[in-house]
Write a structure and sequence with these properties.
10-stranded mixed beta sheet, 5 domains, 5-stranded antiparallel beta sheet, ATP-binding, P-loop_NTPase, Threonyl-tRNA Synthetase, Chain A, domain 2, 1103 residues, disordered N terminus, cell cycle, alpha+beta, ATP binding, 19% strand
Length: 1103
């Protein structure tokens, strides 16, 4: 079956092609209607239904019509008549084919035509009904209705066609229609009652009812005539040059209106509306229309993409007043000018919608124009900027320059005010009720009811916008979208207190195009464009605690160039509105001129109580990714641009800072408006001191002052909050630089809570140069021994319970011996058992106290014996502790508990270094052999002593044994020579006197702080004798001044001392080495002991 259908379709196609290409059948088609007409007249003579015959004849005519053989082509390469004969044949064909084309439209019940057709059909059916009955009459009526509805409509030559406008029932004509209907009904009823046919009633009723619509039919006819004339003209223009304006021609033309001076507007049905607004289409038609003396333009009809408006205007424009007086003419000129400017600026325009709002001499003189459709309708800012540049260059000139019109774009950016360019708005009488619909309340409410003032303000904005365009020329920024004149603050409210200068502040809105914000405009210097103003700066605009991003404020001096206006914060005193605004401008300009992006500056607050000085506080919100760190780095340049003697920064958030700037702030509280401001500035001075050290967190924050208070003695306690990313060690490393920036000569860290950092500070070093032991001597049974004072005046106590052993080291002449003498004096007074030795220099400082000690031997052998005895004593005590239940020395019962034992060894560093020099004895000299033997023997003694010292350091604490070691300044790694040095070192508290290298003399963790204290002391007058640092186990270091106990016989005044328990060291002395030859072994020591006479005056220890 599929094959059968395919063959049938092919046969049908061949038949249709044969008919289309067959011989001309005009001779057959012409007699059809003629014969039908004659037959119909015959039927009518006999009162028979003739209308159905005519309907059939019309249908046959349509079916028999064949297209003419056209040998020409139109611009779109479609067949077209090439000769007059072909044109007549083509018209005849189109006329015959138009039968029944508009049948459904003419029978639409929304219009009066069906009613009229039925009335006429009923009238012609009355004779038929009288003679042949109702059925024949009904056939006649239906046939006539169809014949009238199917009648052909003449067409025009060309691709564009038009047709009559359909007429529909009008609501405002209902009373007339009702009256006519009742009149026809009454007349039909009267005829019926007088013996006439009953068909008279519906016939007259249906015929009379549409009669009131006769004016609408006449208007439709006039419109059709105008459309036909415009269609013929457009077809002539489209085909004049033989080249198509677009890829497809318009299909239909309608809604033609005519102006008083030859202007015309109409609507075209097109395949694609935007394509018809292209410049090439207009230029193609203008070439043909110009020969007839017309210009053309195409604009869109709203959002309808199937229709465009065609406007035609004469090339010789009439007077602007005459154009304004005729709405159709004005609409045509507005459309043509809009199309011209859209083509120049690659935009699409919409149909103008006009509202008359003003007259001059009784004639319309001002209109509001809105645009219906097109890209220009949504970009009135472009219209204001590009279409109204003041150019009169013909086709490239401003909107309206070809016809003498102009327009002012309303700030609402949705319509424009159109009037004559030469006379402007002078003399125009406005209808305020209509004109107020064109007022933009957001632009100005002060001009409500005064349209001339409103339009004058628009012109002022236009002039101001021109200045903005000049100022922003060369940048990527555009002029403000709107200048908000209603919120302008004039010079009458922003005059300085001395009356020498004034400001004017005008808010503006920022265009959305480009995505710019107020901060972008702040970076631009506008002073030159605004009359070389002293001040012409953009600042931000606040919005309930936030900042508008689409609004800004322009601040200008009045007059523009006023040398009396201050431009430095240091010169700006007082607290009036003008002064506050000027301070805001100066700060904003300084930030914008320094950082990568401008910043929003809140209204500053004056902190000074009077005008003798100034201090401004302003909150600043950074933008564009700038951080407080960036502001910190640029602080010196910002201070220069501010013209301030003092600039302090307070960081609230990463992008929020508070600036304090002005003169040098006074200390007197009565000079400040608020006491809290004075306290804040004092804290910020310390914050700036930290910032000067370069100590800032990644977000720009620096160490913030949390508390300032008095401490013990002359010290001030400063406590700081540490931001994330900064720890106390970083503060320690920069403490010296902080002290110098803050004006302190002495600082040291002290304890603080987590997240905080605290120091004690003083203008100079608070330690005395000398201080005696008076008033700090120990009493019998004391465990803690005083030996120095701190910077706060408190006494430093050596407590074996916390620090079991002590190393006192220092450079020559630093007074380190005073530490040992003081502690031994204190230990003797407390009843401690004391052993002392000095294997290097004889311990001359301790000889006056030797009678009060349990053992004193200043030799290497004596040192060996003392530490051997102490080691055995430690083992004995440990065993005693075990016998009494364990624990430590302090838990022993009083009757059996031995006294505390202090073992002192001076010049301990000599025991750490062994003699590694090997003597060459090639001749077997006995003296050289004996010297080598003695060297080996002394090295062995030092090894044994080191072993016992290490054991005492690590185990003596629980046995009540304390080791006090004196040494010259050690080097890093010296204590590593001890056996089990890792543990032994951790049991030593340290006292390091003088200002040598701290490495080896204090633990590694405190080397940096010790060196800092030494540098600080050097800047504050140096290190007097007895000055040093004290380090407790696992803690920091304190600068101390050691107590001076005196020397020689002066030491006896600290007595009486308890009677000592003497110790016999002979059993613990080392056996002498075996020597060869005649050499006598020196059993008194490895080195001779020389008695040194101490010169007290030379030591400068006089109190």
């Amino acid at each position: 079956m599929a094959y059968t259908r395919t063959q049938r379709a092919r046969r049908t196609t061949r038949k249709r092609a044969a008919r289309a290409n067959g011989p001309d059948t005009a001779g057959i088609r012409a007699p059809i209607l003629t014969l039908a007409t004659l037959a119909s007249l015959t039927l009518a003579w006999f009162m028979l239904p003739w209308a159905p015959l005519m309907c059939a004849a019309a249908a046959g005519t349509r079916a028999a019509a064949r297209p003419a053989q056209l040998t020409g082509q139109d611009p779109w390469k479609r067949p077209a008549p090439a000769t007059p004969a072909q044109r007549r044949a083509d018209r005849a064909y189109r006329l015959r084919r138009s039968w029944y084309t508009h049948l459904s439209a003419r029978l639409d019940p929304h219009g009066p035509q069906p009613c009229l057709y039925m009335g006429l059909g009923a009238l012609t059916a009355i004779p038929v009904q009288t003679r042949w009955g109702a059925w024949a009459a009904l056939a006649q009526m239906i046939g006539l209705v169809l014949l009238l509805a199917a009648r052909p409509t003449p067409t025009v030559d060309g691709p564009v066609q038009c047709g009559p406008r359909p007429v529909t029932w009008a609501r405002n004509r209902i009373p007339w229609i009702t009256g006519a209907t009742m009149l026809g009904l009454t007349a039909g009823a009267i005829i019926w009652t007088l013996g006439g046919s009953a068909w008279w009633t519906p016939a007259l009723t249906l015929t009379a009812a549409p009669a009131p619509m006769w004016p609408a039919w006449r208007a439709s006819r006039r419109q059709y005539k105008a459309d036909k004339d415009m269609t013929a003209r457009l077809n002539r223009w489209l085909t004049a040059d033989g080249r198509p304006a677009t890829d497809r021609p318009p299909a239909r033309l309608d809604s033609t209106t005519s102006g008083a001076h030859g202007e015309r507007t109409c609507r075209l049905t097109v395949p694609s509306a935007p394509a018809w607004t292209d410049k090439t289409v207009r230029d193609t038609l203008r070439a043909a229309s110009a020969r007839d003396g017309y210009d053309v333009g195409f604009v869109l009809c709203g959002a309808d993409m199937m229709h465009v408006m065609l406007a035609v205007t004469p090339l010789d424009a009439p007077a602007p007043a005459d154009i304004l007086a005729d709405k159709t003419a004005l609409e045509a000129w507005c459309a043509v000018e809009t199309a011209r400017l859209c083509n120049n600026y690659n935009a699409t325009g919409g149909r103008p919608r006009l509202t008359q709002v003003g007259t001059r001499d009784g004639k319309p003189a001002c209109w509001i124009m809105r645009m219906d459709g097109g890209s220009a309708d949504s970009d009135w800012d472009m219209i204001r900027r590009d279409w109204l540049r003041g150019s009169q260059a013909g086709q490239l000139g401003d909107w309206g320059c070809l016809c003498g019109l102009t327009m002012s774009v309303d700030p609402g950016l949705d319509h424009a005010w159109v009037f004559a360019a030469d006379t402007g708005t002078d003399g125009i009488v406005f209808d305020e009720d209509k004109a107020k619909t064109g007022h933009t309340a957001a632009f100005s409410t002060m001009t409500d009811g005064n349209t001339p003032a409103y339009l004058a303000l628009i012109e002022q904005e236009r002039a101001d916008m021109a200045v903005w365009d000049e100022a922003l020329n060369g940048t990527k920024l555009e002029a403000p979208m709107q200048i908000i004149y209603d919120r302008r603050t004039g010079a009458d409210r922003l005059t300085s207190r001395d009356g020498r200068w004034a400001l004017e502040c005008t808010p503006c809105s920022i265009p959305t195009k480009g995505g710019h914000s107020a901060a972008d405009y702040m970076k631009t210097d506008l002073r030159a464009a605004f009359g070389d103003s002293t001040v012409a700066d953009v600042i931000g605009l606040r919005n309930r605690g936030k900042w508008f991003t689409r609004y800004m404020q322009l601040v200008q001096t009045v007059p523009a160039n006023n040398p009396a206006a201050p431009t430095r914060l240091a010169d700006l005193s007082g607290d009036g509105p003008a002064e506050r605004l000027m301070a805001q401008v100066i700060i904003s300009r300084a930030i914008a001129g320094t950082l990568k992006h401008a910043a929003y500056v809140d209204a500053p607050r004056q902190c000074a109580r009077d005008t003798s000085w100034t201090m401004w506080r302003a909150e600043i919100q950074l933008t564009g990714g700038d951080t407080a760190m960036d502001a910190r780095r640029a602080a010196p340049r910002i201070a220069t641009l501010l013209g301030a003697d003092t600039t302090l920064w307070e960081i609230r958030e990463a992008g929020m800072i508070i600036l304090w700037a002005g003169n040098r702030p006074p200390d007197a509280p009565e000079k400040w408006r608020r006491g809290t401001d004075r306290d804040t500035v004092l804290r910020l001075r310390f914050d700036e001191a930290w910032a000067a050290t370069g100590l800032t967190a990644p977000d720009g924050r620096t160490v913030a002052t949390a508390h300032i208070g008095d401490d013990t003695g002359p010290l001030t306690r400063l406590e700081f909050t540490l931001p994330a990313g900064i720890d106390p060690a970083m503060c320690d490393a920069r403490l010296d630089r902080f002290a110098a920036a803050a004006g302190y000569g002495y600082t040291r860290p002290t304890g603080a809570a987590a997240g905080r950092y605290a120091i004690l500070a003083a203008a100079t070093n608070p330690l005395p140069d000398r201080i005696g032991l008076d008033g700090r001597t120990a009493m019998s049974g004391d465990r803690r021994l005083a030996f120095a004072v701190r910077d706060d005046g408190t006494t430093v106590l050596f407590d074996p319970a916390d620090d079991p052993h002590l190393l006192a080291s220092g450079t020559t002449g630093s007074g380190k011996s005073s530490v040992s003498v003081t502690l031994i004096v204190q230990a003797l007074r407390a009843g401690w058992q004391v052993l002392a030795t000095d294997p290097e220099k004889g311990a001359n400082d301790l000889k006056p106290l030797a009678p009060h000690m349990s053992a004193f031997d200043p030799s290497l052998e004596g040192c060996y014996a003392i530490f051997q005895w102490a080691h055995r004593e430690m083992r004995r005590r440990v065993a005693l502790i075990d016998e009494h239940g364990g624990g430590d020395w302090a838990m022993l019962p009083d009757p059996v508990r031995p006294p505390r034992l202090l073992v002192f060894c001076d010049e301990f560093n000599s025991l750490l270094q062994k003699d590694k020099t090997k003597i060459s004895n090639e001749n077997n000299d006995p003296d050289l052999a004996n010297e080598e033997t003695m060297r080996t023997w002394r090295n062995g003694l030092k090894s044994s002593i080191g072993m016992w010292v290490s054991a005492l350091l690590t185990q003596g604490r629980s046995a009540g044994i304390t080791v006090l070691l004196g040494a010259q300044a050690l080097k890093a790694g010296d204590l590593e020579l001890l056996p089990n040095a890792g543990t032994a070192k951790t049991m030593l508290a340290r006292v390091f006197l003088g200002s040598g290298d701290a490495s080896g003399n204090v633990s590694g963790a405190n080397v940096k702080e010790t060196n800092r204290l030494h540098r600080q002391a050097t800047r504050c007058g140096g290190m007097p004798k007895g000055r040093g640092v004290y380090e407790r186990l696992g803690r920091g270091v304190d600068m101390v001044q050691c107590l001076y106990p005196g020397q020689g016989d002066e030491l006896e005044r600290w007595g009486p001392f308890p009677q000592p328990q003497r110790i016999d060291l002979s059993p613990f002395m080392p056996a002498p080495p075996e020597l060869t030859g005649l050499a006598e072994p020196d059993m008194t020591g490895s080195e001779s002991v020389e008695t040194v006479q101490v010169d007290a005056a030379g030591e400068e220890w006089t109190l």
